[in-house]
Fold each of these.
Amino acid sequence: MPSYREIVEIQKDPARARALAQGLSKLDDAEWTDWELDFLASIGARRQDLTTRQGEKLVELRDDATWYTAVDGFSLKKLIERCHLLRDELNERDAAFIERLHAEGATMLRRKAARWLMACARAVGEIEPHQGHSFERLSDAALDADDEA
């Protein structure tokens, strides 16, 4: 959850909000809904301060576009492997999702996919029901290390 201070900083800085919105709208693999694309376009053209709710939503979309490698200390790569072994215990839709992640060799996921993976891990008993609700951002150093590998 973003801090109120961060939301206010975005809200009171139209140039920063525009740049963020324009950058997010250019992400090819973010799978934005039509509403989200319209929202990002309107913020990308806005010259005045945002409302608190607009700032909150923009920060939320930024966080949704962030890549994650771990949640609550659980490696997403390892959870994909474990869930793939136990995929017969999942419903058809969840099993297909896990199979796709496994086939792609996914090691990083955006927030929506990471949440879905955590739900699958809970369903097969790989993690406890109270686990997997916070997200650790992938650090720039980790990204650089992955690029070099």
Amino acid sequence: MSRHLAELNIGRLRHPLEDPRSADFRNALDRVNGLAERMPGFVWRLVGEGNDATDIAWASDPKVIVNLSVWEDAETLERFVFDTVHRAFYARRAEWFDAMESHHFVMWWVPAGHRPSLAEAAERLARLDREGPSAEAFGWESLPRADELSAQRCG
């Protein structure tokens, strides 16, 4: 069975998206999202009313924004996150986002062609908080071990 890598990333904005202090972040959304979509290995991303997902509510906190996407594999996602202009914005995240009290990033394997729902992604994030890294919910630091567990389960 062919699989892809899903990822969820949430962040609580320090200031409303319309606030001038969020302008650099807000103004880069189309550029960074467009770059992601042109990257080899990109499969899909959640999009709301605009060309991003900033209008999609996360729980009851209107300051939390989400990014949910699917990639062919971890290497292609990693290349996008750390080897493109995305890296410069990632380095500035403390300017725009509050520190989270629990996990804010999770990855998991999905069957190729599957588009995870926000509810599915929220469950994966909650699982990572409850149980720690596993084949079903993991972060960068657990990726090799998650690969091994997933291969054992599928093989």
Amino acid sequence: MRNLPIEDALNAVGDLLAVEEERICVVVVGGATLNLLGLVRRSTSDVDVIARAYRNEAGGLELSQAEPFPPALRHAIRTVARDFGLPADWMNAEIGAQLEHGLPPWILDDIT
């Protein structure tokens, strides 16, 4: 992502959502995740979102399709792209179709 720490871009999205009093949780996978976890230190061209996460009434974690992104999230992504000089699709859900095919059964335990 053009030498921009992924954390900075994602924090900026979070800050914009907080200003709007929006709480949206996404599940990020791929190279961005490896960077966020400190497992690798290499640039990545995008942030892959496979799903949105939410707590059900019992407090359990559940996943839903990432797309369409909620309007507040779309706006925050566009704003960060503009402000940080990133491509419009720097954060995308192209991988989201994988959710329909199923995820590993342990995935909910690994989400942080």
Amino acid sequence: MLRAEFPDLRAFALHCDSIDVLAEFRNRFYLPSETIYLDGNSLGLLAKDAERAVFRVMQDWRERAIGGWTEAQPAWFTLAEDLGAQMAALVGAGADEVIVTNSTTVNLHQLLSTLYTPDASRPAILADVLNFPSDLYALSSHLRLRGLEPKTHLRLAESRDGLTLSEDDLIAAMTPEVQCALFPAVLYQSGQLLDMQRLTAEAHRRGILIGFDCSHSIGAVSHELDAWGVDFAFWCSYKYLCAGPGSAGGLYLNRRHFGRPPGMAGWFGHRKATQFEMSPDFEAAEGAGSLQIGTPNILSMAPLIGTLPLFAEAGMERLRAKSLAMTDYLMTVAEEKLSRYDVQVVNPREAPRRGGHVALRHPEARRLSLALRAEGVIPDFRPPDIIRLAPAPLYNTFTDCYEAVLRLASILETRAYERQGEAGGIVT
């Protein structure tokens, strides 16, 4: 349809940008000068609203000192709950089922310590070979803590192509020995969006608890965790949510699990009304708030005070629609401009199976990523041969997508990537 209506893809980009209902949000971010930033699935850009929120918290610290815990607006003492209630709308959950706390992997550890209860008949955890490594490290550690061998009891469903997962294969791996399953909502390399509703229904049919790592989906994909019956989920907030490097993560606990004592209890998981009575006996808060551990990192949570209202204002329906339109356009341009250079689009094409980024495969992906940066385009490299391009609907444009591909085509045509050599080091 794109080619039929707009044979000139640049003209189509300009047309889309001219009718973009989210265009005004772009001015509310700090955009790197003379740079096309397409790495929002690793670190979102700084929103001016987030900056003001941080300054406001700093001002409260300066002027109120200890009084900020109860006198600041919003008060620090209940900030995790207040932000959790706002974040719940992004994942289709009740306000008391979401809490903003800890980092992503710490939240997974807390959820596993609370919900993973192996016995002789169901000792195993099911994950997949394409899962984010930190999640697999956490799963293995919980098996060891319970005297189980990860090589035996961590079941990893295979991938047929090394990039995507088949829901049929994941369901087939839900054997009677599995007590708990964990999958990514969106695969961090290929950008595949899993059918969370189907997987949850099939897991529960087999008596298996199921959770999802939503780090690459929250803020880019609509979720209905309650309606789907998901048991637990967790995520970071520094990607599409634009809360800054190392900002506090979030977790979801389905209310059917309310009342379970947290596996790792701490004083901020205590019932708020009696927390400062300092009783030696732990009285868990109701809801997901019970899974908090220590004192919340207020400065790491502060940017969310500014960014979550942006998402409420934009609306996930509009954000998802623009994300799908941009990634569809990006794939169209990439196939026209890059296929002659053996660049492959390897993420799923169907909208219901696609997250928020496009994955391009090329043998020289690492050096191409460096060369793109030299040409003012910030992509993302994932070994061994994937370049990820993530147009964020709040601040990227269709023209960004077109120009990025055009510069990549020029790099390939002139073989400019060869000048990057074989230097080592981290490519974020």
